[in-house]
Write a structure and sequence with these properties.
It is an enzyme of class 2 (transferase). It is found in: Membrane. The protein contains 17 helices and 48 strands. The protein is an alpha+beta fold. It binds 2-acetamido-2-deoxy-beta-D-glucopyranose (8 copies). The site of one 2-acetamido-2-deoxy-beta-D-glucopyranose has 3 residues, from loops.
């Protein structure tokens, strides 16, 4: 009896002794922690179990680890398994521990909180072991396997590992991110399938590959020799079908093998030489499907590549490319999809004609066969291209034969395809206009030109021959130069002066229409404006402007200028209906604007709402873009200010008095007008002996934009203590520099709630009032920035400008 009781412990210890020869045992209560670099190796040291970094963070507070098994004798240390719960990778912060208890494997955080367990109930583990096959097992007293990593695979199968129905492989997210990814291998109805997942949910889309075992597959086997096949219920074996799944010589003595469902969705068998002196690295042996780029074809999901990118097989791997004008969303992840380098926008703010914003780039060698929103037929290639250009929804058009497919974002399932005469791709891209041609965003700081300017004044002083107080000198010099600013003259091309549809009115008609110039509705820079009615009783109201101060020698140019004004047609310009040119009388007849001037509205009793103001700014900018960039010959307005913007019954702003500057520019009497009209709006170059360009309008627009934003005049008398607010341009710059833009629109809740636009527009305004004309953006550029198509760089600092000369 005594001998028998003694025998039992001996047998048990003998059994343990034998076991430890076959595998490296890990006893109960053994732990690994993220702090020490400890691992549990297999007896031959081919495989190791332990912590691996999940991210590359160096800060211990954010650094994460995962519990993994990897090939330990190769330089890559390739991970073949990682701990997951419900298909979600278990990540552990610094200070976490893995422990073997009688209940199984547990991963606990630094405070002892459970992160992952091997999830066993009602069993008693007596030992764990890392086997030489790469399988980590938990055994009971009788050396029966209670749990094995082989039965809980992640994305990889190893030789001697098999997958039973119910088992799955889920790809990782990217090459370097071990989180669960977008593809899955699984059993269904006795076959083995590959499907895309509706990431991050577990929903499977249609399969893109089937290992067809006629519904009889019972296991997916990776046998010891390195072969992979499905075993059927009646014992036959079925090889994966595919032209790239070639039978090869297998030699597990020479090579390591692994089969991984890659993050790109391809199920690949790799080999790696065991001999450490050979060239290291995993090589592709065979894979299914043949061409994943073409196999994934489903209305949902992006395909193997991410959205807006297209896929092609290169060197046995899918690779993803961005269409022209697009770039990778995440430059480090080729499979993460592409985004256009621009915003494709529809909506009220965007009224620039599409031809100006976009162009269609032609390509031939790819397709996005799904995701059409229109299919038009018959339709020529040219029409197809044009249709997409015009349609703000359209991102890309494909023309094939006489059919036109219009595509919208996001573009999925993109793939390369052979070039054919039947297939043309048109990609909508932004017209590229640099903010400043030839300059990058690193703009030079503006020199302290205020100082320079003053120096120049003093140099000029002796020329004028009076040594007087600085302020008087300043005014004199200003006057001197105001008398002869140079406006770029544009050669007159038309020989016949009036080839427009302008009416020529007799003086008598207009006298009658205005009830003998009775009802004065305004006094502009160029004369008095009267209300009129062309036909008695009609509702066709007109504004009749009598030009005074027109120099005699300008008579001939009057008609030439009129013809250029008459040719303009834009909804943000006041339309010239006709004119009268009889003897000394020069009269212009305009459409009548019922809501008065912008100045009336903006500085009147009730401030217009933010939305309305936004509409004003956009409309005026559009009108100016037209004058500067879209007319046959650019028209410089020279006197942009709220008094010259009229508002129609639908609150559309319309620029008036354009085209007149040239007529009156050298008129002596203009100087006084100019000084009055320019106060606060005039660009500094007017006071210098330099050419005046369209940039003077940009300057004035900038001042006016600030007025529109802040609903106040550019120059105000302020009470003491608030003097810094007197000059709006100065004050806005100060507020911007100090990051206090909100004080500019105090109490304007709507403006404050549109803060991104508010901030952007203040920046745009500051760019516009830059002292140096060449630093100011063009109106076209201003328009794009207002519409949000182009980023607005921060204006240079320190900032110096001469807002006005008073
Ligand atoms: C991996 O992807 C997941 C899901 O997008 C993300 O939360 C995680 O931060 C990524 N990890 C790394 C290391 O990039
Ligand atoms: C971490 O850095 C290494 C080396 O730069 C890189 O190979 C690896 O992909 C990075 N891992 C992650 C998750 O970003
Ligand atoms: C491979 O698996 C079989 C049974 O599944 C087992 O008998 C054999 O010992 C394993 N081979 C190795 C090298 O462990
Ligand atoms: C593995 O499978 C191949 C054929 O599929 C067979 O020739 C080989 O004998 C198998 N090896 C083992 C160890 O079963
Ligand atoms: C085994 O099953 C497969 C698929 O169902 C079938 O094609 C094959 O003929 C069967 N073989 C035998 C010996 O029954
Ligand atoms: C498999 O064989 C085909 C045809 O012989 C060949 O084109 C292909 O490159 C091979 N695939 C691999 C992965 O070696
Ligand atoms: C490893 O490869 C080298 C050269 O390729 C060879 O000389 C050596 O014998 C190989 N070692 C083994 C263990 O096969
Ligand atoms: C799009 O942006 C990428 C990255 O900024 C750039 O490399 C590429 O040249 C751009 N393409 C076009 C057409 O602007």
């Amino acid at each position: 009896m005594a001998s028998f009781t003694l025998l039992i412990p001996t047998l048990i210890s003998l059994q343990f002794y034998l076991l430890s020869l076959a595998f490296a045992n890990v006893n109960i209560d053994s732990t690994l922690s993220t702090a020490d670099n400890g691992v549990w190796r297999s007896p031959s040291a081919h495989f190791a179990f332990g912590f691996r970094p999940f991210n590359n963070d160096t800060d211990p507070k954010t650094k994460l680890f995962m519990v993994a098994i990897w090939y330990d004798m190769i330089p890559d240390k390739t991970v073949v398994w990682s701990a997951k719960t419900d298909n979600k990778l278990a990540t552990a912060p610094t200070g976490s521990q893995v422990r073997i208890t009688s209940a199984g494997l547990t991963l606990a955080g630094p405070k002892g909180d459970s992160i992952w367990t091997s999830n066993l109930e009602g069993i008693i583990v007596s030992v764990g072991s890392m086997l030489d096959t790469g399988n980590f097992v938990l055994l009971n007293q009788n050396s029966e396997k209670l749990w094995q990593s082989f039965e809980n695979p992640t994305d990889t199968l190893l030789p001697n590992q098999s997958l039973q129905p119910g088992g799955t492989l889920t790809s990782r997210l990217t090459d370097t991110n071990y989180s669960s990814g977008r593809f899955q291998l699984y059993f269904e109805d006795g076959n083995v399938l590959l499907s895309t997942l509706a990431w991050p949910s577990p929903l499977k889309y249609n399969s893109y590959y089937v290992l067809d075992a006629s519904g009889a597959a019972s296991t997916l086997v990776f046998n010891e020799s390195g072969d992979i096949y499905a075993k059927t219920t009646n014992g036959t074996t079925i090889q994966p079908q595919g032209s790239q799944w070639n039978s090869t010589d297998l030699d597990p003595e020479v090579n390591y093998y692994r089969a991984t469902l890659d993050f790109s969705g391809v199920f690949t068998q790799y080999y790696h030489p065991r001999n450490s002196t050979a060239q290291p690295g995993w090589k592709i042996m065979r894979y299914v499907p043949d061409n994943i780029c073409n196999e994934i074809f489903y209305q949902y999901g992006s395909g193997s590549c991410g959205y807006n990118s297209y896929c092609s097989m290169e060197k046995n791997r899918p690779t993803c490319k961005c269409p022209y004008g697009y770039s990778l969303l995440d430059p480090s992840n080729q499979f993460g999809g592409c985004q256009p380098n621009f915003t494709l926008a529809c909506g009220a703010d965007v009224q620039t004609p599409p031809e100006e914003l976009y162009e269609m780039h032609a390509a031939r060698d790819f397709n996005f066969p799904l995701g059409d929103y229109e299919r038009i037929q018959p339709y020529s290639r040219q029409d197809c291209r044009q249709f997409c250009l015009q349609d703000c929804m359209c991102a890309m058009a494909i023309s094939g034969g006489d059919t036109c497919w219009l595509k919208r974002f996001p573009l999925g399932n993109g793939r390369q395809q052979p070039i054919s005469d039947q297939h043309f791709v048109y990609i909508k891209t932004r017209v590229i206009r640099n903010f400043y041609p030839g300059a990058n965003m690193e703009l030079p700081l503006s020199p302290d030109s205020k100082k320079e300017y003053k120096a120049k004044l003093f140099l000029l002083g002796p020329l004028i021959g009076s040594l007087v107080l600085n302020s008087i000198l300043l005014a004199t010099v200003a006057l001197f130069f105001l008398m002869k600013p140079k406006v770029k003259r544009v050669p007159i091309t038309s020989s016949s002066p009036l080839e427009t549809n302008l009416h020529s009115f007799t003086y008598e008609t207009l006298e009658k229409a205005t009830w003998n110039f009775k009802e004065e509705i305004g006094r502009g820079s160029y004369g008095i404006v009267y209300k009129g009615q062309l036909e008695a009783g009609s509702c066709h109201l007109v504004a009749v402007k009598r030009l005074d101060r027109l120099a005699q020698e300008r008579e001939k140019e009057f008609r030439t200028e009129l013809s250029s004004i008459g040719r303009t047609c834009h909804k943000n310009l006041v339309r010239l209906i006709g004119f009268c040119d009889e003897g000394m009388n020069r009269i212009l007849v305009y459409e009548f604007m019922s809501n008065g001037t912008l100045a009336d509205i903006l500085f009147g009793q009730s401030n217009p709402k933010w939305n309305v103001r936004v509409g004003f700014a956009l409309g005026i900018a559009r009108g100016l873009v037209y004058l500067h960039e879209e007319c046959d010959t650019p028209i410089i307005h020279c006197d942009i200010k709220p008094q010259n913007i009229l508002i129609d019954e639908y609150l559309n702003p319309k620029i008036s008095d354009f085209g007149l500057a040239k007529l009156l520019l050298s008129d002596q009497s203009r100087t006084t007008t100019m000084i009055r009209g320019t106060r606060g709006y005039v660009a500094p170059e007017w006071f210098k002996n330099v050419a005046v360009t369209v940039k003077v309008d940009v300057y004035s627009f900038g001042v006016m934009l600030l007025e529109i934003i802040c609903s106040r005049r550019s120059v105000l008398m302020m009470e003491s203590g608030e003097e810094e607010k007197a000059l709006l341009t100065d004050w806005a710059c100060d507020c911007f520099m100090e990051g206090k833009i909100d004080v500019l629109v105090e109490n304007d809740e709507e403006a404050l709630s549109d803060y991104v636009r508010l901030q952007k527009w203040v920046k745009i305004a500051i760019w516009c009032i830059h002292e140096q004309p060449e630093m100011r953006p063009t109106m076209g550029m201003v328009m794009q920035m207002l519409e949000g198509f182009v980023e607005v760089p921060n204006p240079p600092s320190p900032f110096s400008y001469v807002p006005c000369l008073n």
